[in-house]
Design goal:
The chain is mainly beta. The chain has one domain. It is built from one helix and 14 strands.
């Protein structure tokens, strides 16, 4: 199955993962819904705390997620690049700049190689946890740091 990724008119904000729409706040800078799932932030509105039923836990400094629902997040030795979400390995290209796969979900990029354009998988659909994992990885790629989902 191929799942197309859609962006806004400027091509900068992810608007849709297949048929799952991503809605943004009035300023257009912070996602507020992933399909039917409401995104909730901390009291200051700066740190993502929940995606629907998936609660997000952060490290002691509060700078990066360590758990999303039942998925424990693991990072590389430098602590800057997500390597695993639960049972889903996140694989990167040789330069380490672009995620190429999330578990068995392959990520294809546009011709310039700068923006993910579609996902490919050998089954009919993404599960709920996989959709949330894809959302988090794609958002983290947007600026190559967690501030992409924690404005």
């Amino acid at each position: 199955m191929i799942i197309e990724l859609s962006y806004d008119m400027l091509g900068s904000r992810l608007r849709q993962i297949g048929d799952v729409a991503i809605e943004y706040d009035m300023a257009g800078s912070r996602p507020k819904r992933l399909g039917p799932r409401k995104l909730e932030y901390d009291k200051l509105g700066s740190r993502l705390r929940r995606i629907g039923e998936f609660e997000i836990e952060h490290d002691r400094m509060g700078t990066r997620p360590t758990r999303v629902g039942n998925l424990a997040l693991e990072y590389d030795q430098m602590g800057s690049r997500l390597r695993r979400m639960g049972e889903l390995d996140v694989e990167y290209d040789l330069a380490g700049a672009r995620a190429r796969a999330i578990g068995d979900i392959e990520i294809e990029y546009d011709q310039a190689g700068s923006r993910p354009r579609r996902l490919q998988l050998d089954r009919p659909a993404l599960g709920d946890e996989e959709l949330v994992a894809v959302f988090i990885v794609l958002r983290s790629l947007a600026s190559d740091r967690w501030s992409a989902i924690i404005p």
